[in-house]
Amino acid sequence: MASLGSLPFLLEVSRGSNSVLLQNRAVCRGWPSAAAFCRASSTDVDGGACKVRFLRVGKGEILVGLSLVSGKKGLRAIGKGGSFEGEEGGDDGGINDGDNALQATADKREKLRAMRRKLLQKIVERRNLVSSLTNSEVKEEENMVSYTMSDKTSNPNLSPSSGGPAGRYKDRPVSDSFSQSNEAMISDTPSGSVNGSFLNKEMESGSSTRVEQEVADAVGLTREASLETAGSKTASQVLLESSGTYDVKDVNLEDPLGAKLDSTDVEHGVNLEEGNMEPPPLAGANVMNVIVVAAECAPWSKTGGLGDVAGALPKALARRGHRVMVVAPRYRNYAEPHDTGVRKCYKVNGQVCGCYIICSLTSRTRYMFNFIVSMLFAVQDMEVIYFQAYIDGVDFVFIDNSLFHHHENNIYGGDRLEILKRMVLFCKAAVEVPWHVPCGGVCYGDGNLVFIANDWHTALLPVYLKAYYRDNGLMKFARSVLVIHNIAHQGRGPVGDFFHIDLPDYYMDLFKLHDPIGGDHFNIFAAGLKTADRVVTVSHGYAWELKTSEGGWGLHEIINQNHWKFQGIVNGIDTKEWNPEFDVQLRSDGYTNYSLATLQTGKPQCKAALQQELGLPVRDNVPILAFIGRLDHQKGVDLIAEAIPWIVGQDVQLVMLGTGRPDLEDMLRRFESQYHDKVRGWVGFSVKMAHRITAGADILLMPSRFEPCGLNQLYAMMYGTIPVVHAVGGLRDTVIQFDPYKESGYGWTFDRAEAHKLKDALGNCLNTYWNYKESWRGLQIRGMMQDLSWDNAAQRYEEVLVAAKYQW
Ligand SMILES: Nc1ncnc2c1ncn2[C@@H]1O[C@H](COP(=O)(O)OP(=O)(O)O[C@H]2O[C@H](CO)[C@@H](O)[C@H](O)[C@H]2O)[C@@H](O)[C@H]1O
User: Fold this and answer.
1) How does residue 207 score in pLDDT terms, banded at 50, 70 and 90?
2) Given CB 3.0 to 4.6 Å as the disulfide criterion, which of 26, 660, 730, 797 pairs with 631?
3) How, if at all, do strands 653-658 and 624-628 pair?
4) String of b and e for 145-155 (b: at least 16 CB within 10 Å)?
5) Mean pLDDT score of the chain
6) Whole-model pTM?
């Protein structure tokens, strides 16, 4: 029995030759006087000897070692009144570390203390720097706001840089959210970096990498173990924790030291609790490295909802404590990311040598066929350059190659083989990012790693992960999750397309799908669904629909066969980008920000500004109906067209914004010229107008034939705009029908994608708008009060990531 007094301690349970059981390690920290306990899971101790040791990192400078040997399940070590004892067959062998070990550990501890002193010194220096900058920051923020208000540049996303403390962005355009994030970084970060988010990260990591290693050394862990122990914490978190300022309340949360030190550092007089401490990760012990791979990512590239999700979900995952990266193609020269200097070559558009050999071994004819294919489509070594930026807690990595250039307005454009070539290169380059691209000085590595691929464009990633790496004993701990945003697009082609994706012959079956009409074809989504460790879709309603022959678009059987790994999670929204209170698009041209408290004045002002901007009669008492979206069959814009004679017969105004099918674009233009006093059809992609219409309109129409989730109805509700939707997919999940008796619900729904159904629902909606003002206000308030943020969804995603991680 060893007395510990009342000092902080770390209890570490290990088994066999591993000094640390990374996945099943049980750690206990706290004060021995409390009844702290550590329970090792049965897999830790069943049938094997366990060693338990205490590491003390406190002022008393006492180290106590103690061994427990147990062949039984449920080993427990219980601390009571400053002493520890083994239970259930545990044998408290007493202190068994020799003097030498004690001396070595004492040395390490001394090293740690020196590091901590150095670190605290840095914190003091940086804090002083921050306070000296505070005044100038405030001024510069004001400047930036006024600059943005007068901004009349054509790109709605860009406003001139404040040229403020984020000196990195000085003298060049930077999106408003980036300016904000840089400012937030400057004020939030305990170290008070003045160099903008990316430099801040670099600064943190530059020193933290060293410190991490030293900390790991000091407690006898390998570097990998240390990184994995710290889970996916950012370098700054590791730093803070190693400096003892991390107030750990969750017993599952692990850090290399595990010691809670006094928050007031006597030597330097720094009260760390007053600083901007990062709270413990919400993900607890589940923190991991997450890489979201998508063909588009807002605000850099966006054709629709996928861009929004790729821009927002990662931030929510990062807020939970995960180390998160987004990988997207670099379609043009973006302002924020910098060249990492990393260059790699990947083969595209043909067979790899290994594949030729396999083919030649199996069949002479196949060899000949491959040979001809390779003659027709020469194998090319394409060099990619990796760019990187760190914004809002997320690493954004952009893959550069001339194949991607100038495609930001035409991401899925070009002929089938061109798109395929882009996606092959993108997926090949993305899957190796965790090996090659240092983010904040440290690569993600492939342990504790989950990729999140999105739609067919990146559905090759799970396949490459398996075929190139896991089948060959590499990336053994990396997993993949595939998210279905829209099953209608699948990456289909003739079977011969298989020879462009560089996979061994025996992978062909994954891609081959029989179409009742077209016969056998090549299908990328099918292969991704079969290969991914988990599959998610973006609402519960759509998850159900995908399993039906009507909703699965030919993939329902595969989805049903993989039911066990399939799940619906309703999208969230970026409540910073899409929030009437902070929306930067509402700060000029007569628009105004508003909240629930100022809804009664703010929204009418936005409405008047919208009418003014679009040249519609400025009238407060006329409801504005809006449609925003891609002009295609999915979105049901033709149902609005069918209902237009009835619509224009009402005292309403109609505003439609969209791009897509040329015939539907023409239709918008025609409506505008035909009903010029009531209808506006804006053909084009304008983020600014999407925000302004959402704020100024009273009613949003979403007659989608199918809608996996739908984001516009969520944005509408946040802005007090009432949705009228076809109850399908995610629209059914998110828009609850208004009940006038209970005064509940968020809008109107109709059950079939037919024009008369739309008219019925819209008629009821307009009746309420004109005659039941209180009910209308109730609808607005309920909609605005919902928590539609990504935080809930991120938690659900985390469950999926964990399930994937532990799947073998
Ligand atoms: N002309 C235009 N100008 C400016 N902005 C425009 C625009 N047209 C569309 N947008 C914007 O693009 C986004 C569209 O999001 P949606 O979720 O409605 O659609 P999408 O069908 O692309 O996404 C797919 O993926 C998402 C994400 O999972 C699912 O919600 C959805 O159901 C599924 O079809 C919104 O941010 C909208 O404002």
Assistant:
1) very low
2) 660
3) parallel
4) bebbeebeeee
5) 75
6) 0.68
Closest ligand 1 atom to 684 CA? 1
Cα 310 to middle of ligand 1, angstroms: 12
Q: How far is the CA of 730 from the centre of ligand 1 (A)?
A: 13
What's the pLDDT score for residue 379?
Answer: 63
Q: How many angstroms does the Cα of residue 709 sit away from the middle of ligand 1? A: 10
**If you take atom 24 of ligand 1, which residue's CA is the nearest one?**
305
The domains spanning 284-343+385-493+522-568 and 584-788 adopt the same CATH topology: yes
What is the reported pLDDT for 570?
Answer: 98
Atom of ligand 1 nearest to the CA of 682: 1
**Beta-ladder partners of 419:** none
Distance 640 CA to ligand 1 centre (A): 18
Q: What is the pLDDT of residues 662-701, one digit of tens each?
A: 999 999 999 999 999 999 999 999 999 999 999 999 999 9
Q: Where are the domains of the chain?
A: 3-274, 284-343+385-493+522-568, 584-788
Residue nearest to atom 5 of ligand 1 (CA): 687
| CA–CA separation, 254 and 25 (whole Å) | 9
The residue that leads in pLDDT, 150 or 803, is 803
> CA 689 to CA 236: how far, in whole Å?
39
Give the Å distance between the CA of 431 and the centre of ligand 1: 27
Ligand 1, atom 7: closest residue by C-alpha = 629
CB under 8 Å, gap of 24 or more: what pairs does 769-775 form? 769/623, 769/698, 769/699, 769/722, 770/623, 772/740, 775/738, 775/740, 775/743
- Can you give the C-alpha Rg of the chain in angstroms? 29
Instruction: For residue 193, report the distance from its CA to the centre of ligand 1, in Å.
Output: 36
Tell me the β-bridge partners of 749. Answer: 725
Nearest CA to ligand 1 atom 19: 305
Query: Among the atoms of ligand 1, which is closest to the Cα of residue 308?
Result: 36
Q: What is the pLDDT of residue 380?
A: 74
Q: What is the mean pLDDT of the segment spanning 126-150?
A: 46
Q: Residue 303 CA: which ligand 1 atom is closest?
A: 12
Atom of ligand 1 nearest to the CA of 455: 25
pLDDT tens track for 414-460: 899 999 999 999 999 999 999 999 999 999 999 999 999 999 999 99
pLDDT at 245 over 80: no
CA atoms within 13 A on the CB side of 45: 25
Query: What atom of ligand 1 comes closest to residue 538's alpha carbon?
Result: 28
The number of the ligand 1 atom at minimal distance from the alpha carbon of 542 is 32
Q: Which of 84-93, 729-738, 748-757 has the lowest mean pLDDT?
A: 84-93
Q: Residues near ligand 1 with C-beta < 6 Å?
A: 304-306, 308-309, 485-486, 538, 571, 628-630, 657-659, 685-687, 690, 707-712, 730
Domain 584-788 in this protein, CATH class:
alpha beta
Predicted local confidence at residue 24, as pLDDT: 31
Residue 76: its pLDDT value, please? 36
Q: Calculate how far, in angstroms, residue 304's C-alpha sits from the geometric centre of ligand 1.
A: 4
| 467: nearest Cα among 475, 456, 457 | 475
- pLDDT tens digits for range 76-127: 333 322 333 333 333 333 334 445 655 676 677 777 777 777 777 777 666 6
The amino acid present at 149, given as its one-letter code, is M
Residue 490 structure tokens = 């699948």
* Residue range 284-343+385-493+522-568, CATH number: 3.40.50.2000
| Residue nearest ligand 1's atom 8 by CA | 629
